[in-house]
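Lab manual, section 2.4: Encoding a predicted structure.

Procedure: take the sequence of the chain (128 residues), apply the prediction step described in section 2.3, and record the output as structure tokens. A sample record is shown.
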Amino acid sequence: MGHIYTDSVIEGSAGAKKVRLFVDTGSTFTLLSGVLAEELGVMQLPGQRQTIELADGSLKQYPVAIGNIEVMGRKSVGERFLIADVSEPVLGVLTLEALGLAVDPLTGEVKPSRGWQTRGPLGARPVA
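Recorded output:
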């Protein structure tokens, strides 16, 4: 299928930026580099670290941060990111699910997996 990328907007207290994300359905979490997180003012949670198991079975801890992300017009406010030494930002499954998105294995494209306005209270629904 090859590598899959999607455009997004990531927002923190210092502003928002259009970011091209590598879509990794094998990654639970969305990963940002420390440089990008700092540039955008993505809020790191003091003392909060997430332990994850890597593909080789080893465990590693990463700082946890909170920010906003928008993909394909669907925005998640207060999304959890892990700050990691990555060469490019990674879009993980938790964020895909939160946004009602999935990878279509036939086309290799990110597509809606469910209606966006079907969840949450009326006041929380985005205005289309």
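Check your result against the sample. The chain is about 10% helix and 50% strand.
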